[in-house]
TrEMBL record:
InterPro entries: AMP-bd_C_sf, AMP-dep_Lig_C, ANL_N_sf. Gene3D superfamilies: 3.30.300.30, N-terminal domain of ligase-like (3.40.50.12780). This is AMP-dependent ligase C-terminal domain-containing protein. It holds the Pfam family AMP-binding_C_2. It comes from the Archaea. The lineage of its organism: Archaea, Methanobacteriati, Methanobacteriota, candidate division MSBL1. Residues 352-444 form the AMP-dependent ligase C-terminal domain.
Length: 448
């Protein structure tokens, strides 16, 4: 049935060579810099302090003349000024039609404003991403992420409506049995959740006496809000556990847009889908130097809004550390691809080497079915710098015999050392003992 639909949401944008897209981006960038300078009290003062004239920013390369905006700076913009959205509110309350916020789990929340135009642009861009991830008008979609305040809530419902599928706004609050019962009642064939929740639900379905492959009709899955799908063992666990045709990753950031990248049918890296909305740069997280978008380059993603009216950010540090590809994809899209390896704020520095807990999980996951794929790094004190030897808890499956554990410990230790230069104390824990998350997995725990 899906064959009746066109392959691309926006064929021209998705298949035009990147150099031609850059012309469009630079035109929008020049307008946006003028707009920001003239309408944002925050950036007006910052540009003056930094000695940046908006007219100096003509090309994508020129962006490096502007210092980064980070989360603490963004947070400070809410403290001053007479506007509800603070000093970086660049549209009047009359023009702003919706306000979302960050979760506020790591400090006071920050707010994101949207004008009517911003909402239209978002809907189109998010729909483009979900279309790439395989959602079609004939689908019944169970959407199980937070709907309250979260940019992954109502904006996603708007975008799915734009696609025209039948969306079930389940949200994140209902229990797993209700979620599964509704999916079963409605014969839902698509679901969108974090990878942690998609894994958790497999176990929940089994606990309810349901066979996830037979008793539910899920065919397609799209993931978001945390890394995980780039790890082959997790994708396979979800795909096989649910008996899916496709399981694709998406990436977004509240400050910019809910979804900005999505995987195509190759399921190998996410296409950067919104070059008309955002310029993405790659930087060295330690030095701030710009890294060329060459094939297999790695760095932190930094974003600049080029078509945003309400609360636009310039060179905003995402703290997502990614690997990128530039080669042509078989799907025909010419846009670059990215895969997030981990969050720079989750990263630990052990013996001078950067280690991402997600990369550790990926390495350990290769030993399935001996292990379950759940791990936790235990530290004496908060990172990133780790002084002593960290403990790595690895969950082993119930079928493992005591006598096999030493051999497994050696093999895991060897892979971690050779691939990541990471040599933790490996501690095996029994199946089910690492806490399952319904939202995002906590891969690091601090214990005195
Ligand atoms: Zn592709």
């Amino acid at each position: 049935m899906t064959n009746e639909y066109p392959k691309y949401w926006d064929k021209e944008l998705e298949t035009t060579p990147p150099e031609e897209i850059e012309e469009l981006q630079e035109k929008k960038l020049r307008n946006q810099m003028e707009y920001v300078y003239n309408n944002s009290k925050f950036y007006h003062e910052k540009f003056n302090e930094w000695g940046v004239d908006p007219g100096d920013i003509q090309t994508i390369e020129d962006l490096s003349k502007i210092p980064f905006t980070d989360k603490p700076m963004e947070r400070n913009t809410f403290e001053g000024g007479e506007n509800p959205l603070g000093e970086n509110q660049t549209a009047s309350v009359e023009d702003i039609v919706r306000i979302h916020s960050s979760s506020g789990t790591t400090g006071p929340p920050v707010y994101f404003g949207l004008t009517e135009g911003d909402i239209k642009t978002w809907s189109n861009c998010i729909a483009r991403c979900f279309w790439t991830a395989g959602v079609r008008p004939s689908d019944v979609v169970m959407y199980g992420m937070g709907l309250s305040m979260f940019v992954g809530g109502i904006p996603v419902l708007d975008a799915l409506r734009e696609i025209g599928c039948a969306t079930v706004p389940a949200g994140a609050g209902m229990g797993s049995s209700r979620f599964l019962n509704i999916a079963k009642d409605l014969n839902a064939n698509v679901f969108g959740l974090t990878p942690s929740f998609a894994r958790y639900l497999i176990e929940s379905a089994e606990d309810m006496g349901l066979d996830p492959r037979e008793d539910l009709n899920f065919e397609k899955y799209f993931a978001g809000a945390e890394p995980g799908m780039g790890e082959e063992h997790i994708r396979r666990e979800i795909k096989e556990g649910w008996g899916l045709e496709s399981a694709r990753e998406t990436l977004g950031i509240g400050e910019m847009v809910t979804v900005l990248a999505a995987e195509c049918e190759q399921e190998y890296g996410m296409h950067f889908m919104v070059p008309d909305l955002i310029i993405a740069e790659l930087i060295d997280p330690d030095t701030g130097e710009v890294i060329e978008w060459e094939d297999e380059a790695e760095g932190e993603l930094v974003y600049t809004a080029i078509d945003r009216r309400a609360t636009p950010l310039v060179r905003f540090r995402s703290h997502d550390y990614a690997k990128v590809w530039r080669d042509d994809c078989e799907c025909g899209r010419t846009t670059h691809k990215v895969r997030v390896i981990g969050r720079t704020d989750d990263m630990i520095i052990y013996k001078g080497v950067n280690v991402f807990p997600t990369a550790v999980r990926e390495m350990v996951g290769q030993f399935k079915p001996k292990v379950t794929g759940y791990i936790q790094v235990v530290l004496d004190e908060p990172g990133p710098k780790v002084e002593g030897t960290p403990t790595l808890e690895v969950e082993v499956s119930d079928d493992m015999k005591e006598s096999e554990l030493e051999d497994l410990r050696k093999k895991i230790g060897k892979v971690l050392q050779s691939e990541l230069l990471f040599t933790p104390e490996i501690e095996f824990v029994s199946q089910g003992s690492i806490e399952r998350s319904k939202y995002k997995a906590d891969l690091v725990r601090v214990e005195d």
